[in-house]
Amino acid sequence: MKCQKEFNNNQHNSNINRSACGKIRLRGYSNNMKYSIIIFMLMTVLMVMGSPYEDGKKLFEAQKYQEALALFEKAANDGEKRAWLVLAHMYDLGLGTKRNADEAIKYYERAAMANNLPAMRRLAEMLFAQQQPDRAIHWLERAAFNNDLESIRRLASWYMRRRNWHRAEFWLGKSTEASDPAGWNLMGEYYLLRNRPKDAQKAFDQAIKLKDVDSMASLGNMALREGDTKKALYWFKEAAEAGNTQALTSLGMYYLNGLGGAVDYQEARKWLSKAEKYNLFARYHLALLYYNGQGGKKNYEEARKLLESCASEVELAKFYLGMIYYHGWSVKADPAKALEYFEQAAELGLQEEAVGMVKKLKAELEPPPEPDPDPEMENIPPEETVNSHSN
């Protein structure tokens, strides 16, 4: 393919020009000078390819986080903007260093000032956690005015929780104007808070038209509040089939509590089994179904696993774990561990039985008191005592 002529008059007079076939032409220089320029350009490319940021990326991908951190910091000090967000994440998550919220905020703020939207959102989260709402709102608003829908919804939620209806409506309007399905869902929740169920219904319907599955679950909850259990069941099933995980828990509790009439433990176990990986509350109730043998056979081992996985968040689980370890159901009996669980449950006032189990176990685990010395033996000299035993 032949090279085309110069692109324009300005390029015609330049010393360095690129032809249409991609070759670099150097005009007005000696061969030695041309060679030097080419070497300089090549070295520049190699320096960029081997920059601290690029080398840091390779080390990061190799999970050599400490070495990567040092290179990213060098890159940041050299003005490499891409390094700011990486450093923020590393200090945020504790990769290659101890977690350091102040350092993370510093780098998130640098990235946010360069209009990085994810940095603005995470920065706002951290500032809220540090009880700095004014600064957090500033960054959320900056992201929102850059048409970041997630930030718009967060602002709406923030003002809804504080009953600042005017500001909530402003941001909800921005969200719905953008045909944001989640924004329409939030608008429905807003109307429920304002006791406007008809408007809430319209908002949820609009969200569903935009393929928002959460609004199906919201309509199910709304129907329950109105006492329409059949309608609630319909929407919970629609939401569950569409992939809403909260609806799985709602269905399990629907059958567990007999909201449609009779309690159905089998259906409850079926839906809670699907929900437990997403919801600790569902996991706890599924564990009790296994524990009590409701909707199927008793399975203490599965109950124990589920209870242990949610005990840190669902305090009621501790009483049942105490019972399992006390009786040795599916595990070796461990009275000391059972006592620990019962004490925690008793301190929280969760089960009256826990207090009784604490007293019972303490009595069982305390060593028996030493017998009182025989007063007649106390008056006998040591030698006579020895002789009496030898005889």
Can you give a write-up of this model?
There is one protein chain. The chain has 391 residues and is an all-alpha fold. 69% of the residues lie in helices and 2% in strands. The protein contains 23 helices and 2 strands. It has helices at residues 9-12, 31-49, 52-61, 65-77, 82-93, 101-113, 117-129, 133-144, 149-161, 165-177, 181-193, 197-209, 214-225, 229-241, 245-256, 265-275, 280-292, 300-310, 317-327, 335-347, 352-365, 375-378, 382-390; strands at residues 16-18, 24-26. A two-stranded antiparallel sheet has the order 1-2. Helix 5 packs antiparallel against helix 6 (101-113), helix 19 runs antiparallel to helix 20 (335-347) and helix 20 packs antiparallel against helix 21. The relative contact order is 0.03.
List the keywords.
disordered C terminus; two-stranded antiparallel ribbon; 391 residues; globular; mainly alpha; 23 helices; disordered N terminus
